[in-house]
Every structure is written in structure tokens, then in C-alpha cells.
Amino acid sequence: MLEAGNLVKRLQEMREGGYLSDAIMREAVKTIAGSDDRYDWVGIYLLNPDEKILWLHNYVGEGTEHARIPVGEGVCGTAVAEGRNQNVADVTEIENYLACSPKTKAELVVLIRAGDEIFGQIDIDSHETGAFTDEDEEAVQAVADKLAEVVMSERR
Ligand code: SME
Q1: Does the beta carbon of 58 sit less than 6 angstroms from any atom of ligand 1?
Q2: Do residues 38 and 126 lie in contact, with contact meaning Cβ atoms separated by under 8 Å?
Q3: I need a labelling partner for 131 at 20 to 30 A (CA). Which of 2, 35, 120, 156 fits?
């Protein structure tokens, strides 16, 4: 299980130590991926709001063809289009699912956002059907919220 509190604290310390969002997002992905055997692929997609495209910032896991995903497509693009996290227990039931790996059974997408403004998302795939609980979503959301804060702080 992801210890979100510890990770959020470390990300905050990195920020205070002068690290920029690029390094902080890589640290978040690496730590989430290493925290739980059910998390087989972990990545961050960032939203280009002008082109309405999600682009893959960094990931841990197998290579993927889906480095760019239009808003509205797949589980990732749906999360942005609907402005809601997606916890998919069985990806075979999703019509417009974009398969990164044939082994993936479940997917969790948690938005990185400040209010209505969406910056991107943390995407986690699992080889286990029904892998993700509400506790997983809450823990990942805590990390996503810290990342949103970091992204916001770089704008000023
Ligand atoms: N399965 C995602 C695409 C990204 S891969 O999981 C890395 C989707 O349907 O949007």
C-alpha cells in the first residue's frame, strides 16, 4: 500500500530544496510504482489544453504506444473529458480502452487539478482485475494534489 503521507512530505521537502516539478513528478511516479505489487505500470500524463492532448511525462513499466492521448479517448482521455477520476475494475468492459499491455486488467486514473483546472493525471495499470480500492484512489489523490500545488507554484 502506498504511504501517501510520507511521499507527500518528501515531495514538499524536494520543493523547498529547490527541485522543480519535472524532478518531483518523476520521484512521485517512481515511489508509487515501488510501493505496491498491484501497480504494474505507473505514469504521469500532462494536459496540453490548447491541443486537447495528454502527453506522457514519465513512467515506470513496459514501453507504451500511447505517448499522446486525445481528450475523450481511452480511460485517460475520458477522465479529462468528464473531469472525474476513473477506477476501472475490468478494462475489457471499456469500449474505447487504449491497451498499453495485453496483461492490463484494471486501471486507475487520478486527476492532477486545482479546482476546475486540470493539469494532468496519475495513471496506474494493474494485471489484477478489480485491483484498485477507494483507499488506493485516496492515497494517489493526496499525491496528485501535492503535484497540482507544485505546478501552480511554478506559474507565479
Ligand atoms: N489504457 C489507457 C492508455 C494509457 S496506458 O494504460 C499506459 C487508456 O485507455 O486511456
Answers
A1: no
A2: yes
A3: 120
pLDDT tens-digit series, residues 101-148? 999 999 999 999 999 999 999 999 999 999 999 999 999 999 999 999
Beta carbon of 75 within 6 Å of any ligand 1 atom? yes
Exposed, middle or buried: residue 95 (CB in 10 Å: 0-12, 13-18, 19+)?
exposed
> If DSSP codes are grouped into helix, strand and coil, which group holds residue 152?
helix
Supply the residue whose CA is at minimum distance from atom 2 of ligand 1.
Answer: 98
Query: Any idea which residue has 476501472 for its cell?
Result: 88
Residues 6+ apart with CB under 8 A from 21: 147, 150, 151, 154
Cβ 64 under 6 angstroms from ligand 1: yes
